[in-house]
């Protein structure tokens, strides 16, 4: 004889295939856990941690904050901190008490949110013969049988809930980063256009203003990730056009002397430049090679001299700048603060080497009040480096 495990709702409540299937799934999972106690899935969960995870992942399950509040109220009727889904976890609050613990929610509203929790597969109804919620106890006061809401399905879903919460957190971090990037691009493009107009630079600044106005529309707080990605891509394209036009409008004297004092075009002959190796300066005609690897681009000045000329960079290193690696790490942080795009910085690193690119960022930070467009300035120095016409040594000398 096959044991029938399904429980049907009291009164006018209908038994549906979905309810039957959920009950069958819960019972089969409980049976599997009982037979295989050594598996990774224990069927247990700390109830408040689980509720927090579900709050973060509620959009995935189609639940509102008020539905979560009703579930929180139900959890308060279970005295144990741990939910053990290997057996029924039946709570049996009265409607009045459940309403009180749900911040005075009306009965009709309570029923709607309870139905949503059951539809999400987190609750099972275990109705008594008369539809009342209560329990039977033995002579020692131990509950023998209870009728109400079974929280075991919620405990059995703990693994999936925590996984969805982690995905929601990752998506939230990505979303916030995208919004921040959009804001920075808007600000930087607007300021470069403003500077060009104030200085009377030649260029299509009216067209750029129109394009910027089109991309400056207010973004809804619920704007999709795809919308933000599209806005960011359009702003990056506009920013590149604006910076290129601004650089073209600068005279050669402004590029070479006005922003960083007397930074000169120097052919990189490497005849008597000092390259720092492992923290010490040595005179070498060519940059040293790493054993088994490609040539490492040297830096034509010692780290000590760089820090003496550019002390501001040290404020952006948690434990100070003691090595070239510390300087490179701090420069990566400062790059973002100065509004230098990741693309511009990566091209500088490729052309100059990590150390030299970090020195340039440190120098730009030191004179940030004099440099109108740090991103554009770095791109121009990158072009010089690609042509073999750039060295950091004159920059550091100008700052000493």
From TrEMBL:
Location of the Plasmid replication protein C N-terminal domain: 29-196
Pfam families, sorted: RP-C (PF03428), RP-C_C (PF11800)
InterPro entries: RepABC_RepC, RepC_C, RepC_N
Domain called Plasmid replication protein C C-terminal: residue spans: 303-399
Stretches for region Disordered: 274-297
NCBIfam families noted in UniProt: PRK13824.1 (NF010396), RepABC_RepC (NF040974)
Entry protein name: Plasmid replication protein RepC
Naturally occurring in which organism (per UniProt): Mycoplana ramosa (Mycoplana bullata)
Gene encoding the protein: repC
